[in-house]
Each structure stands twice: as structure tokens, then as C-alpha cells.
């Protein structure tokens, strides 16, 4: 059996946040869920494996699990990573053959790398330990791995306990470790908190193993998958790497990004083929985009589904619950929320559409507003197929505009308009002849 332990009970003080560190999102998904999802992917190829997340009393089990099939174990006091592993091992029903240890604050982990690490571990004679090392450009406060040329580790030293020479070592501890279960179970009991932090360091198991003549091996992986998030600065770096990955993936799948670095995705963004995305576009959670869509500059889109051949922007805001049929056109300074729009309908300028059901081939004139909120409740607007809404109209919901009906520009519509009718709701115009000439003469 392979057991995967994910340590997530630390305090995360360096984030300076009321939100526990591991719940801070990267690409719209809490860090811990990135790690759990990678673990669950590893599980699919390791028969009878299980994952345990070690959490603190401040964390709700349900929040951490987020509906995922993992166990949890409670670490009441954050006594250190060594203590957390001991607690995790204790909740397992049997001593696992192999244990994979992950940290909940490393959201960039990828399952294929983790599988490779397990394979690498199995290559060395058991019992042994395998530690994933990396060489970050700025090694900062990572633990340093003291190893020989052959990759055998002597010990891991935490930055705060390291000598000046040890701090010069470029090989850093990523936190990922693979160990034989029985060995690890024995070693964690021997860890003592005699260090600068007064914590039970998991990393001490390497030196403890060596005392018993047992080898630990380092396997080096690219730092892009291993970054540990301790501060908001690390969080931004992790977000940057994640976005970079997704930009590449979408471009490989046939999406044109005019300026990849100013295009931001969420973990669940789905985009079709031959879509072009202009600069400064952000996709929040829950966006699905069909083929041949064009997103023009400066748009924010979330919880929305766009059909084929849709155009959005520049500077449009699709907020939530938006469904756009094929070839819909949403233009500049248009905000849409909780609204379904049929195919070929256009709302090209300066409009708010909220809580509306809009048919096909509708033309929404510039400055149209659905007045959907009376200060207490939201009401619905229905605009049927082929209707034409003149510019600067207010549609006071609940209200319905019939099939093919026309709303005269500047109307405040608070009564349903029948099919094919003209709804006009404004003062009749009066022209005062020669008034302008006389007015000017008076002031000359
Ligand atoms: C740890 C490693 C360090 C490594 C770095 C990689 C140790 C002693 N140090 O340092 O060598 O370079 O990660 O990112 O392991 N946690 C618990 N219970 C605790 C303490 C921590 O569950 O009592 C969890 C945290 O929630 C976190 C993870 O363990 O997810 C790592 O803890 P953290 O305090 O961030 O360790 P680092 O100082 O980053
Ligand atoms: Ca960390």
C-alpha cells in the first residue's frame, strides 16, 4: 500500500492573514486542493493507496477535503513537520509499504513527477529514504541538502540552523519525501526538537537513518513544480508559474493569446478552438467558451458560458450566470449578469442586462438598462425574439417585450409590450420655431 500524507496543519504566520495559508487560492483553487488533486491522480495508478491530510483545529475538515475522497488527521499543536507525519501515520489502518509525503503549501506539484519520484525510490535497495531536491535561483530560507556526488544525503539542515557554509549549498529541500513505511514509523519517534525553532523537523529523519546505516537519496526536479508558498510574495510567484502553464496549454490547444502575460485563467477555464483573446482579459471561475470566439481587450468574465462565434468587449463584464448563444455580440462597457441571450443578439454599447431572458436576433440599443432591483428584490425581464430596444431605454422589471416588438428610444418601460407593437414611453416632443435665434439675440 502507498500512503500519501499531506501536511497542512502549520500556522502559516508569514502570510499575515485570517485565512489559513493552505486555503489561499492559486488560479482560483485553494493551494491544498491542488496538492490533494495531484495526490489523487497518483492514487489512480497505485492500487489500494490512500491519502491523509494533516490539519489543525482551525481548519474545517469539510473545507479542506472539498468533497474529495481523502482522510484527515488532526494535529492539535503545530509542533513541526516531523510531528505531523507521526500523527498521519497513526491514523492509517496498516503500516504502508511506501509513504509519499507532500506539503500542503506547494500548489505546483504535478502527478507525473510524483509518480516518477516513487519509481525512483523503488530503484534503490529497501529500506531507504528518497528526498526531492531542487536548485531555486534564490534558495532563500529553504532547507539545504548536504549530499555527495552520487546523490547520497548526509543530512538536511534547516536554513535557520545552517552554518554560513551550509547556506551556500544550492541544493534545497522541496519537502517531498518518499520512505519505506516501517522505517519512517520508527524514525519519526526518534526526532527531537533540539533546534532553533524548537520543532520536530521531519528533515531530521535523514540523519537518523544514516546513524542506522540506512541510505537517503536525493532526486532533483525542476523548481517550477516545487515552489513552497510561505509568504504573499511566494503566492504571487506560484500564481505566475501556474498561469504560465495554462497559457502554454491553451495555445497548444488552438487558442490565440495576443499577449499571454496579460491573460489570466482559472483552474476550471474551458476554451474551444480558434478562439482569440486580446490583452488584459481575466477569466474568473466557471467559464466555458465555444469555438471561434473573440474576446477583445479589457474584459472580466466569470461563471459564464459562451457559444460559438461570440464576440465580447472591449471592456465588457460578464459576471455570473451568463449564457450567450452562438454569434452573440457583447460590445464595449456592457455588463451582463444572470442573463440568457439567444443567438445573433447584439448588445454593443453601454448597457446593463441583469436577470433577463433574451431571445434570438434581438437588438439592444446603446444605454439600455434592465432595472432589475427595487432595493429589496430582483425581478426578471423577458425580451422575445426579434425585438428591438431603442437606445437609452429603461426596462423596469418584471416586464416583457413581445416578439418583434420595438421600444422607442428613451423609453421607461414598466408595462408589457405585446408582440409586434411599438412601446413608447416618454414626453412627446415640442418644437418652438425660431426660439434658438431669439435666445441668441437676447444675449448678444
Ligand atoms: C519546510 C522544510 C524545508 C523545506 C521547505 C520546502 C521542514 C522542517 N522544513 O520548511 O526543509 O525546504 O519546507 O517548502 O520540514 N506543517 C504541519 N504541521 C506543523 C508544521 C508544518 O502540518 O507542525 C505543514 C504546513 O502546513 C506546511 C508544511 O507542513 O504545509 C511545511 O511547513 P512550513 O512551516 O511551511 O515549513 P518550511 O519552513 O517551509
Ligand atoms: Ca513552507
Largest sheet: 20 strands, parallel
Specify the CATH class of the largest domain. Alpha Beta
Give me the count of strands. 34
Tell me the helix content.
Answer: 10-25%
Q: Structural class of the helices, strands and pairings? A: alpha/beta
Which strand-content bin applies to the residues? 25-35%
List the bound ligands. Answer: uridine-diphosphate-N-acetylglucosamine, calcium ion
**How many domains is the backbone divided into?**
2
Instruction: Give the helix tally.
Output: 9
CATH architecture of the largest domain: Alpha-Beta Complex
Q: What average pLDDT do the residues reach?
A: 97
CATH superfamily of the largest domain: Spore Coat Polysaccharide Biosynthesis Protein SpsA, Chain A
Measured between the Cα atoms of the first and last residue, the distance is 97 Å
Here the CATH topology of the largest domain equals Spore Coat Polysaccharide Biosynthesis Protein SpsA, Chain A
Q: Which regions are unreliable across 5 or more consecutive residues at pLDDT < 50? A: none
CA-based shape: elongated
Question: Radius of gyration from the CA trace?
Answer: 30 Å
